[in-house]
Write a structure and sequence with these properties.
Strand content: 15-25%
Radius of gyration: 19 Å
Largest sheet: 7 strands, antiparallel
Distance between the termini: 64 Å
Structural class: alpha+beta
CATH class: Alpha Beta
CATH architecture: 2-Layer Sandwich
Oligomer: single chain
Helix content: 25-40%
Length: about 180
């Protein structure tokens, strides 16, 4: 006598390709595990951009807001959308993989943050006007004029709003704030 196996459906699911937004949210979870890892990535980007002054602000243990302001060399308007693409970086080209001299080089931090939160980047390169781009849940908006003296301000709000299951794994605001303090 045979009996059907439990949890076997009549309609066997087919293998299908995930859409780009889902792929980016999954990949983002590997780069950004918690607010402290977001701060680490942003501070390392600022250091790689030649910043001598870096300010970190956050609210709700980094879940509600993370803002990193630096006086580095900034990004050009045409580079902002590219900076939000996976595997886009100013730090290496394919031939440099054996001689990496920067913190970030994979081109994953900014697109990952944009995939899991509400990300705004304001930047000004010397001799250029300041510009801003906003990303919500992985969907970038247009580059618009902005006000900034120099460097870059990266503001991340509502971390993991696009992946609510991820929020459940975070610790209390106080514990997440302590982890940010440990990184900085």
């Amino acid at each position: 006598m045979t009996s059907p196996a439990p949890n076997i459906h009549r309609d066997i699911p087919r293998i299908r390709q995930l859409d780009e937004a889902a792929i980016n949210r999954i990949a983002a979870g590997e780069v950004v595990e918690r607010p402290a890892s977001a701060v680490k990535e942003l501070v390392e980007n600022a250091i790689d951009a030649g910043a001598r002054r870096i300010e970190v602000a956050y609210a709700q243990g980094g879940k509600g807001l993370i803002r990193v302001t630096d006086d580095g060399w900034g990004m050009a308007a045409e580079d902002l959308p590219l900076a939000l693409s996976r595997h886009a970086t100013s730090k290496i080209d394919g031939s440099d993989l054996l001689d990496i001299r920067s913190f970030g080089f994979r081109g994953e931090a900014l697109p990952s943050l944009g995939a899991v939160g509400r990300l705004t980047i304001t930047s000004r390169r010397e001799g250029a006007e300041a510009v801003r781009i906003a990303v919500t849940g992985g969907a970038p908006g247009p580059v618009t004029p902005a006000a900034l003296n120099r460097g870059t301000v990266v503001e991340l709000r509502d971390l993991f709003f696009a992946t609510p299951a991820r929020l459940k794994f975070l610790r209390s605001d106080r514990a997440e704030a302590q982890a940010i303090g440990d990184v900085v």
